[in-house]
Amino acid sequence: MNLIKIFSELTTNLDKLDKGRETILPKTRSIIRDCSNAIKHIHRKEFDLYNEKISLIKQTHTELKEMVNLEPGAFVKFLKTPEQEYAEAVSFYAIVNKQELPTPSQLNIDPLNYAFGLADVIGELRRYALDNIRNSQLSELNQILEDMDEIYTNLFSLDYPAGITQDLRPKTDRARSLIEKTRGDISISLQMNDLKKCIEKNKKD
Known about the structure:
By secondary structure, this protein is mostly helical. The chain folds into two domains: 8-102, Methane Monooxygenase Hydroxylase, Chain G, domain 1; 110-205, Up-down Bundle (Methane Monooxygenase Hydroxylase, Chain G, domain 1), CATH 1.20.58. It has helices spanning 3-43, 47-68, 72-75, 80-96, 104-107, 111-134, 141-156, 162-165, 168-204. It is elongated, with a radius of gyration of 22 Å.
């Protein structure tokens, strides 16, 4: 039956994949962790620290892609989460600093993974808006809401079967809910600010 030779080849192949996986996983964890820290730096407006972190992420991502390309059929799945986090961090930074969003090709990221990252940016923008409200920084609130709406509108326009877009539509639907909550929070905050101005004006009069 020749099973010894067959399973020898199988074992050799699986050993190779297992070793590749064990090499890849630390890279994915590193990117995910560093992206989380990069986003924290954005919220804290520590942009120099963000730039240091994103440079490290870019290098690690390049190394990860090289590893994945050795066995793309088996390893491409390991790119999804780190590339999603990478896209989220870079896009969030660009929006906060009123810069053009980089394209997936510029970041060397799979376009669908990029879309997942954009969907998650909406959550970070909500947090950013709430921080602005707490700090009485109201001038940017409407622009933040417009940015959230624009991202959602473009994500919603991706009308393809779930077999292609995977779980992008449920993530987009959750983003819509966050936008509506943020819209309510911003409306109340701006109304309260207008009321405060009216009261102060009446006191002066």
